[in-house]
Amino acid sequence: MQVTFRFYEELNDFLSKQYRKVRFQHTVATNSSVKDAIESLGIPHTEVDLILVNANSVDFSYNLKKDDDITVYPKFESIDISSLTRLRPFPLREIKFILDVHLGKLSKYLRLLGFDTIYKNNLDDPEIIDVAKNEKRIILTRDLGILKHNKVTHGYWLHSQDSKKQLKEVIQRFDLKDKIKLFTRCIVCNGEINIVEKSIVISKLLPKTKENYNKFYQCNKCDKIYWEGSHYQNMLLFIKKLAIQ
Ligand SMILES: [Zn+2]
Fold it and tell me: pTM to 2 decimals?
């Protein structure tokens, strides 16, 4: 049977060219859900915020009927996560992430900004989905397939392949600018880092570090020691740039 679709804003990125930014006819199986129909056009359901059928708001389980007129809107560009849940089963109270295996650099950036971020280069898709569900984490990925899985409730498809641009995307998409806490999380293991007395770590420091720095932090999980060296200064500059963009 025939229905009509119109997709708005960045949802068009997922569509084949002839369907972008126009109202178009589409053939679907009788009784298919609006969610299945949307995903069959290449759009992960996690990207969708609002669906109108014949001008009424419906959820993903709505069964399409002949000649339905469907309008689909994406999440708003910059949102407070608590307000984007029109189609989500539950809101996430605390922003936590799990990243797919290709996003190692992004995981380091997110941790550096203090965001709880699980990343391992050996997790497969079902493991990522399970951890996301159990720990209420948002999946960040460049792989659309994982976001189409039914168990996924919170996910975001990164548009860019560049890790710094990805970071910018995530900060904007989840409105994280005010939630940045630099130097609170270990970039290696995601543990929490705390200020530690120089005398406690002094035996582990290189002579130059011992000489030049007095303020130290240590990871409570892997014991890695941090100090506010040149890398920290560079990162501060990078963050400042992000914040004014
Ligand atoms: Zn650590």
Answer: 0.67
